[in-house]
Amino acid sequence: MYFVELANTLNFRKAAEKLGVSQPTLTAQISALEETVSLSLFERSRTGTFLSPQGRAVLASAKQLVTSMNHFEETAKALAEGPATTFRMGVPPTLGPYLLPFVLPDMHARYESLKLYVREEAPRSLSQSLLAGEYDLIISPLSADSPELSSVPLFTEPLKFVVPTDHRLSGEDWVSPQDIRGESVLILEEHHHFHGQVRDICASLGANVLRDFEGTSLDTLRQMVVMGIGVTFLPGLYIHSELHRPEALHVCELKGLPIMRQHSLVWRHGSPARVLFRELAMTLRQIIKQQLGDVVLVN
Questions:
Q1: What is the CA radius of gyration of the chain?
Q2: Residue 138 pLDDT greater than 70, yes or no
Q3: Per the structure, how many domains does the chain have?
Q4: Which pLDDT score, from 0 to 100, does residue 244 have?
Q5: How far apart, in whole angstroms, are the C-alpha atoms of residue 265 and residue 281?
Q6: Whose CA is closest to 209, among 229, 185, 231, 190?
Q7: Chain centroid offset of residue 115 CA
């Protein structure tokens, strides 16, 4: 670890600060390592510190060793602490507030010592942050295409077509896809995965996307529909959770064209807690089916 950090910074003072040790301690550790392996790993001069040819040759192996040691420590900690560990979980802002209040109480009842630190972030950023180690697991509508990620499908959520109460389609439970041709559809900002999904739907149906009135949240989309600016698509969980005044707008579905988005629990393939995460996914599926089975589809 000392060798790798110094090789990364090529500065004894900076490396010592990152390692949380004094500079003399780092110097002594490097000297001891060089004596042990009978190699000069660094070249020291007035102009700075540099890796020696021998140091460059063994650096990759040293990094692998540090990675293996970190993995060993994480695995041992996970086995020792189990669900008592605090895990960092990421969720999309178009899902978390409308799902988690219905499932976390039951999760806590089943895993009393489990702690989840939850943050909201756009799905594409969630996947990147998961790979970077900023999250331990995420709930995402994106498929885990990376070989470094594992996932378990949780549920499929319908998208509903929403119009103002004075719209020509208001009062209809089912509308034909042809009825939406030419409609002005409100959409979320581009960094949301939901943006791309609704944009593709509109393109296939011949509807017009109102790019000048993109919403910052699902709430802003709803308010713009109420004000008659346009129509939109909203997730089923949002409608279930937030439409406390259904008379303000009308919710319907497209006849013969169900529009869905699937959500999965995703984690790094090599996570030491991967067995627990798979168990949590199965538990989440059970709870979601019990609490929200009339809103979403759990296969």
A1: 26
A2: yes
A3: 3
A4: 63
A5: 6
A6: 185
A7: 17
Nearest partner of 232 among 195, 267, 260, judged by Cα? 195
Give the span between the Cα atoms of 235 and 292, in whole angstroms.
Answer: 13
How confident is the model over 220-245, as pLDDT tens digits? 999 999 999 999 999 999 999 887 66
Question: What gap in Å lies between CA 49 and CA 128, rounded to an integer?
Answer: 34
- Does residue 299 fall inside a structural domain? no
What's the CA gap between 163 and 249, in Å, rounded? 6
pLDDT tops 80 at residue 135:
yes
Q: Which of 45, 79, 113 is the last residue of a domain?
A: 79
Domain around 42: 2-79
How far is the first Cα of the chain from the last one, in angstroms, to the nearest whole number? 46
The C-alpha atoms of residue 174 and residue 244 are separated, in whole angstroms, by: 21
In one-letter notation, the amino acid at residue 179 is: D
Same domain, 148 and 106: yes
Asked if the structure places residue 227 within a domain, the reply is: yes
Tokens for 187, please give them. Answer: 């959409």
**Of the candidates 118, 150, 134, which has an alpha carbon nearest to the alpha carbon of residue 265?**
150
pLDDT of 48? 85
pLDDT digits (tens, 9 = 90+) for 178-217: 999 999 999 988 877 778 888 888 998 899 999 888 888 8
Contact criterion met (CB below 8 Å) for 103 and 232: no
